[in-house]
Amino acid sequence: MAIFVYAESHDGKYKKAGLEAVAYAKAVADVAGDTVTAIAFNATDSSEELYKYGATKVLKVENSALKNFDANAYAKAVAELVAGDVVVLPSTNDAASFAPLLSLKLNAALVTNVEKAPTAVAPFTVARKAFSGKGIETVAAAGKVVVTVLQNAFGVKENAVTGSEESVKVTVTDADAKVKVLGVEFAKTGAIDLKEAEIVVSAGRGLKGPENWGMIEELAGLLGAATASSKPVADIGWRPHAEHVGQTGKAIAPNLYIAIGISGAIQHLAGVNGSKTIVVINSDAEAPFFKAADYGIVGDAFEVVPRLIEEVKKLKGLA
Ligand SMILES: Cc1cc2nc3c(=O)[nH]c(=O)nc-3n(C[C@H](O)[C@H](O)[C@H](O)COP(=O)(O)OP(=O)(O)OC[C@H]3O[C@@H](n4cnc5c(N)ncnc54)[C@H](O)[C@@H]3O)c2cc1C
What we know:
One of its GO terms (biological process) is fatty acid beta-oxidation using acyl-CoA dehydrogenase. The protein has about 325 residues and is an alpha/beta fold.
């Protein structure tokens, strides 16, 4: 049973979510006793990136009609290349929006928001997050299946294989795009996508008020990090909801998560415990977050963070 995966890229570079989907596809292939074929559109990154996460074959498509995302065109192109029973997609906005179209074109079942490898592939039996993350549903899908992997849930797990690439063509043209992109304007240049970030500096109610976020942004800027927050902070309006991480917010899995003035409630941990290294700064030595931390500093954020900033500046030769 060949396993296919859509390796999403942006501006030619593979997205972290795309690599995670490849890693998930490899886990499916291990259950199925088969290999992974990755589909890549207009990627300039080396295919080595995909072999590293378990793709034995990479189908590379160069097609100007796929330069801008369009759900119809992407679903058509992926459907033309799939020659197997399982297709894995990340659950990015783009991939999640063409997954239903793809499942229609392939006459396949659609299983969204999976976090773990399936326990069986025929039928495809897997647990998925349901009810806005409040429950786990186990489903079995017979026949072909399109699967979307919840971002930052499975993890970008390395599983290197020897691979090869092949340039392939699809029949998609500009006429297949239902939506034409007329122009792109970014709201904030330089902002780092929280879900893709390798370092995240996050803060909670311990910061006392929105006026104190300057030092959080400064530290994040110095580290090349994205900023995040606990839920109450977003609920009160101190920070935008897009920054809220946790069970009801975004799930993230950066290499480094720095939590400042956050207690570490189970609902917060649910969205960040996939992080490789967790650093906690909290004035209360009994804060539950310390139990999940790799490194902890018991101290007042208003003293510790400025000193951290100073040290990072020194390391970067800025002070
Ligand atoms: C159904 C449900 C879903 C939820 N989903 C989420 C979610 O997705 N994400 C989420 O974050 N929460 C979620 N929550 C809320 C969660 O239970 C906690 O209430 C919340 O995470 C607490 O936020 P906090 O740590 O910022 O605030 P607090 O619990 O008030 O903690 C503040 C922390 O700051 C420390 N502190 C205070 N002053 C300082 C200082 N000067 N320096 C350093 N440390 C200091 C304190 O010791 C304390 O540990 C959910 C709750 C429910 C019921």
